[in-house]
Write a structure and sequence with these properties.
This protein has 148 residues and is mainly alpha-helical. The chain has one domain. It is 72% helix and 0% strand. The longest helix is centred in the middle third of the chain and has 29 residues. The protein is globular. The N and C termini lie far apart (51 Å).
Length: 148
């Protein structure tokens, strides 16, 4: 299983792990309202949307890095619009169908942002699975700001 996990991009793994942790932390609070099932369903639908969005962002960035600058900017913009339209459509379907609570679905999609803030936690989890990350040496600039 470790080889399967380490085959995933490390940054994507950290983001997805943070999304899952956020969902687990929020789940007990979904049992407080009267509509427990609707709130829980909405939360986990939002979590799934966040996970899909994270994967789409990673894939879009990965593909855009192979393009020329102008084409990369256009491609990323198009992918962003696609992702936002997908999320809005999913929210509309959740609200219209009544499958889950739209507010808890919004909380679930916000796990994408919360996961970015939990980077210091997910980095530790990733270090245990992937091992310590070896970074290239930093390039030092001259102290006085002049090139020598």
């Amino acid at each position: 299983m470790k080889s399967k996990i380490t085959g995933i991009n490390r940054t994507l793994f950290e983001l997805e792990t943070g999304i899952l942790i956020f969902g687990i932390i929020c789940q007990p609070f979904m049992l407080l309202p009267e509509d427990k099932a609707g709130c829980s369903a909405g939360l986990w639908l939002g979590i799934l949307l966040a996970a899909a969005s994270a994967f789409h962002m990673w894939r879009s960035l990965d593909r855009a890095l192979d393009l020329e600058e102008n084409q990369a900017v256009k491609t990323m913009g198009l992918n962003n619009v696609f992702r936002y339209c997908f999320i809005v459509t999913a929210f509309a379907l959740i609200a219209i169908s009544g499958i889950g609570n739209p507010l808890s679905a919004f909380l679930g999609i916000m796990s994408l942002k919360a996961s970015a803030y939990m980077h210091f936690i997910t980095r530790k989890i990733s270090a245990k699975i992937y091992g310590e990350e070896i970074l290239p040496p930093l390039v030092e600039e001259p102290a006085n700001g002049q090139d020598r």
